[in-house]
Amino acid sequence: MSAELISILVLVAVFVIATTRSINMGALSFAAAFVVGTFVADLDADGVFKGFPGDLFVVLAGVTYLFAIARANGTTDWLVHAAVRLVGGRVALIPWVMFAVTAALTAIGAVSPGAVAIVAPLALGFAARYGISPLLMGIMVVHGAQAGGFSPTSVYGSTVNSIVAREQLPGNEGVLFLASLVVNTVIAGIVYAVLIRRGKPAVTAASPVTESGPETSPEREPEPEPEPEAPRLDAPRAATLVGLLALVVGALAFDLDVGLTAITVAVLLSAVWPQTSRTAVAEISWSTVFLICGVLTYVGVLDEMGTIDYAGNAVGDIGVPLLAALLLCYVGALVSAFASSVGIMGALIPLAVPFLAAGEVGAVGMIAALAVSATVVDVSPFSTNGALVLANAPDVDRDRFFRQLMLYGAAVVALAPPVVWLVFVVPGFG
């Protein structure tokens, strides 16, 4: 049995054991990375740790640290009330507001995880307060980020377009952008229609909500409750808002690292107002950080030992262009659910060059299908975006929420590749 096949079987075993024995999957993955890396791939400790996602560790810890402070000093409550006023009390419209905001951020140049890191904590805090499904809110934020993610000025879009130019393939920046925009908007619309009514019954698109919560039905006679006073913008909250704005501007305008910037802002706020920040470090979602970093360390071992290239080359050698195109879309979706989306696109597009050059499959449609397949799955809890959603969801059963995100991610991995293949690849065949 080849080393690549052994590493794939170990990955399957990690999933099965973690699911059936309630062991943190990150711990299992670290153990698997050590065993497979040392005894199968002949890697030393440096080789095993090469795949440790240090940047993601800092992003997850830094963003959850900063927003723990924002929750403690009441900034998130103030923002929730402001959001209610913004949509005239129509709380069920907020998921679409969050979708549009993240789409705009990525379209103008924000890295997708950076946009999600900024928007997800606010969106999920709002969902918790008003009884909107956190799964719905997280999905809307992530798909919003991917909807704008392939504009010509975006990180993903400029990366794919440069790869296409380097490989001397025909490309179309407008088609690439519209493909991602339309697919993610349609998926978000379907998810919204299915999940919006899982929150409180009064929270519908037509039901106004006061700042104290959803209005009750006129048929009921609830006990009157005093409406809580809207939070005021005091000095700690104003400073936190300035810090959040600095995080956004630093990420977008100056390409500053989101995690390091968030930690710096959090430390400054803690130094000035320690009374509202002393418990923030304990509220970092350490179990989620452990889980994600462990899994991605093992994926790094797979990459180091050539397993990912092995799978991609096996697909590319099939010899049936349409089938190879479909399988490449599946490989992109599956691997991207655990690893860097932009990295996977950089690997898969060159693998598709041989049969694209033959002209049997349209290059523009195939590239759009690969790009969408490799990014639409980013709501998976093992991807950066999904991990940020999982880490920032307050007042949820985290294990249950993890399973929900994992099942939704699995459904997208199963369904998205054939759909985009039918829409973008099959019409250009022959």
Automatic annotation (TrEMBL):
Protein name: SLC13 family permease
Domain Dicarboxylate carrier MatC N-terminal: 1-149
Presence of keyword Metal-binding: no
Domain of life assignment: Bacteria
Transmembrane segments: 47-70, 82-101, 107-128, 175-195, 241-272, 284-301, 322-349, 355-377, 405-429
Swiss-Prot/TrEMBL keywords: Membrane, Transmembrane, Transmembrane helix
tRNA processing among keywords: no
Chain residue ranges for the region called Disordered: 206-232
Start-end of Basic and acidic residues biased regions: 217-232
